[in-house]
Specification:
The structure is a single chain. This protein is mainly α and 175 residues long. Helix content is 91%, strand content 0%. It is built from 6 helices and no strands. It has helices spanning 2-12, 14-88, 92-110, 115-134, 137-144, 149-174. It is rod-shaped, with a radius of gyration of 49 Å.
């Protein structure tokens, strides 16, 4: 019995009571910490899986964008080559200059006596005729709408007739 008395005396001691109470609370805190650490480990693994999925999606999207960017670069290079080749063809300026020279030649054939001075005068007259015809609403629309070769010939003949009529009316007024 003495042993049980010793045990009861230890349990009734205030220091032992505090020690037992402290150990009990320590065990409770340890168990709660263990459970919380397990929850956090599960959340970390879930977030890692989510991050891995997100990185895979971003990687595939970046690969798609790189492919699209490469395709756009290829199209840009193709268009640049096309523009360069189109710039080598006769443009509107060359066609306009051709029409001016042709109109000047038509006018010169009417005034034929002196070739060089008549050529300079008629060239200036043709340029002024084209500059007048290029001003206004209709020529503005013609700049925005491309002209087919057949229409260019018709346009040339129309301008040529206008310039010849203007010259004839000028010469009739002078006489």
């Amino acid at each position: 019995m003495e042993e049980t008395n010793w045990f009861i005396s230890v349990i009734t001691n205030p220091f032992a009571k505090g020690l037992i109470l402290g150990i009990f609370f320590s065990i409770i805190i340890y168990v709660r910490g263990f459970l919380r650490r397990r929850e956090l480990a599960q959340e970390i693994s879930r977030l890692r899986a989510h991050l891995h999925t997100k990185l895979e999606i971003d990687s595939s999207e970046n690969e798609r964008r790189k492919g699209a960017l490469e395709q756009l670069r290829q199209e840009r290079d193709n268009l640049r080559i096309t523009v360069q080749s189109l710039n080598q063809k006769a443009g509107r300026k060359e066609i306009r200059q051709y029409y001016i020279y042709q109109t000047a030649l038509d006018i010169m054939f009417e005034k034929a006596p002196g070739f060089a001075p008549a050529w300079q005068i008629t060239l200036k007259e043709a340029e002024s005729t084209f500059e007048k015809s290029e001003k206004g609403f209709v020529p503005l629309l013609k700049r925005f709408m491309p002209i087919s070769p057949g229409k260019q010939v018709e346009e040339y003949e129309k301008i040529s007739r206008i310039s010849i009529d203007n010259n004839l009316s000028k010469s009739a007024k002078s006489s």
